[in-house]
Amino acid sequence: MIMLLQTTNGMRSSRLLSSSKIAAMDVGSILHMKEGLGETSYARNSSLQKKSMDALKHIIVHSAVNVYISKTPTSFSMADLGCSSGPNALCMAGDIIEAIDEKCSKLSQQTPEISVFLNDLPMNDFNAIFANFPEFFKKLKTHASRERDIHPFVFLAGVPGSFYGRLFLNNSLHFIYSCLSLHWLSQVPPGLFNNEREPINKGKMYISHTSPPAVAIAYFNQFQKDFTCFLKSRSAELVCGGQMVLAMLGRKSQDHNDKSTTFLWEVLAQSFALMVSQKIVNEEKVDAYNVPFYAPSTKEIEDEVQKEGSFIIDHIQTYEFNTSSGDATKDGRITSLAIRAIQESMICYHFGGEIIDTLFETYGRLLSESMKKEEIKGVHLVVVLRKSG
């Protein structure tokens, strides 16, 4: 809560921001995709993510099969980091298992026992994933029966925890993949408030063309810290020669103000500004709200991998994606619901839940207006890493 304290001499008011709830909050216990199966849930508003995953699937599946062929273990362990919830959570795992089973069939080899670990933050709706296990196994058996009379033994487990730290035993995993999760940081960068604990990125919630240079520096520093921790943790958990495929939102240029990265945040900031003008939201709260997000460039990824030293980059590339249907009104609404399903937990924590419906109605309308004027393409950054040694 932001409190206005009147000084005894009446000369001025000072804002007690307590470094902002959003800056001090424990992201691991707050951030999660909208749970359940309701109209605004992530399960019903993740079609854009599914399209992105489908576009990148061939890279992930190919890498997983390559690891299996190079190792041919009797048991194969893999992990999905940032699995989220809803129908997308098991799709990639199923594709990988089927591809390995088909490869074994062609090579006249016994399909290995396969362990799949599904990881996300503790507040993730794991129950919605577990409820899909029976249908998942049924689909695998149906697929396997078309190939031969036996089907692979598959073991699934949920693993709650932050991937910016250890999650698994030493040398226990052959393959790791992460789809559209690593652009989330472990925390809001601490450098977004000055020495008087006043916000320096007023009116914005991410890097913007109006942000002072210190904002981009703070975000980049947090990215470096987090990504190095991520690499060290995964290096301990992967077997030698094991691989990771990491797909995240990124940017093509070194410019932090790349519109493909900042567009959605800029429009959300405009939505908040409009609500401030209507006295629906407190301006000081908006000034203190920043998101734990960072979209890196390929050079930034390459530099951190080289410095950490545990991995070799087999492939790295950026891909433009465009989910436009040609109907800006429809696209604005779909995108608004998708962002709501992702951001609602943090916004409710900072502002309270009473503003949510109005905020995202406004956001959807502004998105549609912007999409009518110009086509906005996003950027995925994909990197395939192999543990050296």
Task: Provide structural commentary.
The protein has 389 residues and is α/β, with parallel strands linked by helices. The protein has a single domain, classed as Rossmann fold, CATH 3.40.50.150. It is built from twelve helices and nine strands. Helix 4 links the parallel strand 3 and strand 4. Helix 4 packs parallel to helix 6, helix 7 crosses helix 10 and helix 11 packs antiparallel against helix 12. The protein is globular and about 70 Å long.
**How does CATH name the architecture?**
3-Layer(aba) Sandwich
CATH superfamily: Vaccinia Virus protein VP39
Strand-pairing-aware structural class:
alpha/beta
Distance between the termini: 51 Å
Number of strands: 9
Q: What average pLDDT do the residues reach?
A: 86
Could you give a quick summary of the protein structure above?
This protein is of the alpha/beta class.
Write the layout of secondary structure elements.
Layout: E1 3-6, E2 13-16, H1 21-24, H2 27-30, H3 47-71, E3 75-81, H4 91-106, E4 113-120, H5 126-130, H6 133-147, E5 154-160, E6 173-179, H7 213-237, E7 238-249, H8 259-277, H9 283-287, H10 298-308, E8 311-321, H11 328-351, H12 356-373, E9 378-387
Parallel strand pairs: 3-4, 3-6, 4-5, 6-7
Antiparallel strand pairs: 1-2, 7-9, 8-9
Helix pairs in contact: 3-4, 4-6, 7-10, 8-12, 11-12
